[in-house]
Amino acid sequence: MANIREIAKRAGIGIATVSRYFNDSGYVSEESREKIRKAVEELDYTPNALARAIFKKNTKIIGLMIPNITNPFFNQMVSEMEKLFRKQNYTIILCNTDDDKEKEQFHIETLRSYRVAGIVAMRTMTPESYRNIDIPVIAFENQISPEHITVASDNYKGGMAAFKHLYDGGCRKILHIQGPEVFIATTERLRGFIEASKKKKDALVDVVKLETDFHIKSLEPAIENIKNITDYDGIFVFNDISAAVVMKHLHDLGVRIPEQTQIIGFDNSFLGELLLPSLTTIDQPIKQLGKITTDLMIRLINGEEIDQKEYYLKTTVIKRSSTLGKIATSKE
Amino acid sequence: MANIREIAKRAGIGIATVSRYFNDSGYVSEESREKIRKAVEELDYTPNALARAIFKKNTKIIGLMIPNITNPFFNQMVSEMEKLFRKQNYTIILCNTDDDKEKEQFHIETLRSYRVAGIVAMRTMTPESYRNIDIPVIAFENQISPEHITVASDNYKGGMAAFKHLYDGGCRKILHIQGPEVFIATTERLRGFIEASKKKKDALVDVVKLETDFHIKSLEPAIENIKNITDYDGIFVFNDISAAVVMKHLHDLGVRIPEQTQIIGFDNSFLGELLLPSLTTIDQPIKQLGKITTDLMIRLINGEEIDQKEYYLKTTVIKRSSTLGKIATSKE
Description:
Chain A is an alpha/beta fold. Helices cover 42% and strands 17% of the residues of chain A. Chains A, B: GO terms for molecular function: DNA-binding transcription factor activity; transcription cis-regulatory region binding.
């Protein structure tokens, strides 16, 4: 790889001028600029992004904190954001937190030490760690503080829509299988579900809480342990993978879906289409979530003040074969 | 964060000298070097990985090229490698190539400009782009050159094992649904399948090629277009997601699995366990693949010469309900 000395030699101008050019630190004539550009091209010189970052006080790197890269919802979000950030010439550093506070704190220090331009903190387990750092941060799902921007699906209305869809399909004894309480998204889904159920006096509702979100090996025993699961005519499961495990368990118990029990999931993962019967679910608008997060981050990096701090995007019921109700949207 | 001007002021020396120091572009006395190092340290509140990287000419960043982050096989590989690299204090820059040559070349330039310590090129579409760069590179699946290390599952023997498992389960008219030809992994699976079938004169085999690997929306019409798919008593599909789409299609056509048609996939994705019937598949040893790739990379970064260039890891048949054969391993 060529260095600055070779570029200066090839361009036929002084090292100091080339240095000013790369550092953007003083006058360089247009004629010299042209010569440098030509030399850079001829020598196949890759500008040193690190050195530039030090001079200009910022890198073109965005740090993405992801709870788990193998979780389809989050990896689809990352895939969206990666494409959009790339269009703005930003590169992604991806940090797997495993919903572990210490791992997340380690990653925050790493990202700070690399002087990233911004951080998207997805489902943070340690909001306090982001409060005093001088880098733009956007929270996805779990909030950081009222001063920080939060982006999420409207999980509350999604929970309401799930209840209504089952109720409209004729269910009157409905179970909600809730995800881990530390995830705001799952407690909001529960809250919406309960709120919607209060308006229907003829419906009985129960709630069971799981402590794992999508590791199949932990989900299976937890779901097999749910008492009287065959008593319900409708089950709203907090995510699609857990819903798939519930369907498998009911199938093993000889329960027919949707005739005896109707099932609705959450996320609209690719998985739902492949199941038998295919899974009705609540769609989170991944493309829009990715777009709004990316746009807001670029604006923050550019120093813009943004007054609106909370962005909750609309979810939609995706009707498939695991329920009997008609299509409804969370708007209804 | 401090800039070059503040560093010069604090160090009590000229900007040009500091610039020469950072650019490695001319004489800087040891005394000045020491002053600059001290100033950089004093002005930073977090250890500056970028500055350190420039001093030491290397970063603690590994670039991972991934064909698609939403593909379960590859995101599980990345998750494994991320954990192992983190133990060695390396951070990951993740680059989604979408199997697109131009995107991949863009990422290579970005990684070079950030002076990453090493690159893992998963399923590269542009091996020639890695040949002349002065950074350690390991190829995963698609080879870069005979001089570069390649890590992969033994897809050839995996293809043989898939044929044998169907044959041993009684199948005599067997279809292989092959993945895109540009992926070495899928052509190796085909080669193994054909080779194993040659030894069994009473078995008829056919091959159909798909041009997409796991985007369900493209897989569905492609699979629906396969002629006479109900004529086969055994189908070996090149990956689990495509196998799931095949199963769904056969189910819609009223074909009973495994009684009428047995199905075997490849990858051992979490998906297989959730299907009805659960999917027999060929396991790729993701943990070992991740471990060996990480270990080799650390050794290359440390300047070690490694004589063995090819690492093909053993696959295993995971017997579930979509086939009738007994458990076999690729060793047999």
